[in-house]
Amino acid sequence: MNYKVLQDMSSVDKFSYSKLSAFSTCKWMYKLNYIDGVKGCSNGFGEVGSLVHSLLERYYNGELEQFELSEKFLEEFDEAVPHGVVLTFENGFRKDLSEQYMRQCVGFLDNFGGFEGYEVIGVEENFSLLVEIGDKKFMLNGFLDLVLKDKYGNYHVIDFKSKSKFKDQNEVDEYSRQLFTYAIYIKHRYGVFPKELRFVQFRIGHTERVKFSEDVLGKTVGWIYRTLEEIEEERFFFPIDFESGNDPTFFCRCLCSYGQNSGICEFYSDYLRDKAVA
Prior knowledge:
By secondary structure, the protein is α/β, with parallel strands linked by helices. The chain folds into 2 domains: 17-113 and 239-277, no CATH class; 119-233, Lambda Exonuclease, Chain A (Alpha-Beta Complex). It is 44% helix and 21% strand. It is built from 9 helices and 8 strands. Strands 1, 4, 5, 6, 7 and 8 form a 6-stranded mixed β-sheet that branches. Strand 7 (196-201) and strand 8 form a beta hairpin.
């Protein structure tokens, strides 16, 4: 049987929303992860989210029944979240939120009834598209938690998040870039853009609905292009400004794979040492 190579993609850069967002959050974290390949440490906040995602994926793939979800969550929690969910404050005080997170997640899973009236089209759907924006060509990668179709033929993108309440509309808009990025794939795969994008914030029992808009998609595409340009031009990869904003080091203390819990980030370690001396 004969074959032919259609296109060599080895030289094409690969980007996901997470990778682009990482650069916007902290350039030094981006460098450690995506350029240097340094392995970081996981944290309880992300591990809880991964566990719930795994359970819902197994539910939609027919591997678990609804009544088994919370039982499996409790059964697998200790292994999936070995160090618990710990909030670290600037003064070094640590608060264990494990019981609270467990209670909230069990409540969600016990009452999870799926999405009545919708057909499930995709579960943990992985995509990789060769995309061209202006003078930039790259592979756009992503994972969609759930794709639904309503009785009118409209598509809905669902993203399960462990996040608490959004602070304001600006934060909703910022997070929505992820789902508008996924809309590019929906249009390619199904021929139409999604009607609605939803963040299901399972810990707090809230669903944030975002109507699809081609205008917002255009702004998201512009953000992707600008971020790619900044990545190409970046030389120093300085970290976030530890002195600016309201509690700017929260990300470093509690969420970053290279932050306080791991001690990998030299910039944050220097910041802590200088602060202790002062």
